[in-house]
């Protein structure tokens, strides 16, 4: 985060003190406005730095969420096939040896493959043996139900998204009503960005330009500006904690393996899984011969 002090001007000479008559010398009355102006610039720099940091955190969160959904959608059947082959291999080994430990292992692996009886019927498709499907979870948590086409949205969608967040960020509002308006607007922006929907983002950009003009920042007292800086610092700490949690997650660690193009990572994992499926199918064929 940009150091607010870096945007401040060089320190000025100490203001002149009162003369013999007890009155301030000329120029003293300018001290407070100058200090307030410098503090205003520091707050503005801190706000912009925080917004850029929040954009980075949010775009990474979208990639983690998209990767998770696409990983489940594209690779889930391969993992299921591997589980089924592991169970079939273990059952073939148990049938050959008859050893209790082989029979027990075959039963354990088969138990991992078989779904819990009646769960899908009980919850009418909203939940299965793996838990709540991601489409249902998206609906419950007001996220886009339609799965994304890519882990990372296109460059133009990313550019429009960043510009919208910089203009409409709630932290730039000074009134509660304006903050709520911006919050609601960014929910729609985030939903469109998650899907990489460039057309929807362009429409939202046009809608923002046609909406109410951004409120002009009025003169603030030094106490209010210092309080604002403290709030921005606390907000940055919260965002840093969110970023650390995302980066330390299993999906976050996987994304670090392909930071330039995370979509290729899905293809690489798919190739590895296909190779494992072929290997297990060959093993099963040998055991069944």
What are the defining features of this structure?
elongated; single chain; 289 residues; 0% strand; mainly alpha
Q: Supply Rg.
A: 29 Å
Q: How much helical structure, as a percent, in the residues?
A: 55-70%
Q: Major β-sheet, in short?
A: none
SSE class? mainly alpha
Mean pLDDT: 77
Q: Would you report the number of β strands?
A: 0
Unreliable stretches (pLDDT < 50, length at least 5) are 1-30, 116-132
Q: Could you give the distance between the termini? A: 65 Å
What percent of residues are in strands? Answer: under 5%
What assembly state would you assign to the polypeptide chains in this entry? single chain
Discrete helix count: 10
Question: Shape from CA axes?
Answer: elongated
What order do the helices and strands follow?
A: HHHHHHHHHH
Structure description:
Helices cover 69% and strands 0% of the residues. The chain starts with 30 loop residues before the first helix and ends with a helix. It has 10 helices and no strands. 15% of the residues are buried. The chain has 289 residues and is an all-alpha fold. The longest helix has 67 residues, at 31-97. Helix 5 runs parallel beside helix 7. Residues 1-11 have a biased composition (Low complexity). InterPro entries: J_dom_sf (IPR036869). Residues 21-35 have a biased composition (Basic and acidic residues). Residues 1-35 are annotated as: Disordered. This is J domain-containing protein.
């Amino acid at each position: 985060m940009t150091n607010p002090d870096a945007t401040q001007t060089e320190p000025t000479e100490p203001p002149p003190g009162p003369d013999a008559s007890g009155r301030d010398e000329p120029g003293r009355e300018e001290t407070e406005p100058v200090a307030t102006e410098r503090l205003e610039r520091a707050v503005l720099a801190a706000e912009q730095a925080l917004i850029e940091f929040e954009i980075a955190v949010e775009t990474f969160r979208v990639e983690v969420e998209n990767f998770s959904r696409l990983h489940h959608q594209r690779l889930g059947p391969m993992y299921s096939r591997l589980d089924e082959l592991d169970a079939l291999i273990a059952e073939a080994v148990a049938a050959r040896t008859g050893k209790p430990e082989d029979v027990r292992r075959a039963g354990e692996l088969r138990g991992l493959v078989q779904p819990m009886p009646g769960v899908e019927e009980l919850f009418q498709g909203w939940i299965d043996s793996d838990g709540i499907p991601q489409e249902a979870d998206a609906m419950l948590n007001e996220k886009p139900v339609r799965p994304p086409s890519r882990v990372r949205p296109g460059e133009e969608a990313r550019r429009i998204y960043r510009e919208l967040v910089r203009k409409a960020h709630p932290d730039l509002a000074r009134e509660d009503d304006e903050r709520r308006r911006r919050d609601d607007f960014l929910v729609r922006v985030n939903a469109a960005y998650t899907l990489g929907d460039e057309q929807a983002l362009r429409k939202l950009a046009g809608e923002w330009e046609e909406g109410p003009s951004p409120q002009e920042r009025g003169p603030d007292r030094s106490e209010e500006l210092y309080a604002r800086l403290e709030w921005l610092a606390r907000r940055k700490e919260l965002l840093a904690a969110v970023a650390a949690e995302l980066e330390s997650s299993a999906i976050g660690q996987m994304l670090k393996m392909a930071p330039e193009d995370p979509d290729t990572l899905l293809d690489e994992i798919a190739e590895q899984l296909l190779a494992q499926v072929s290997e297990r199918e060959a093993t099963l064929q040998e055991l069944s011969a």
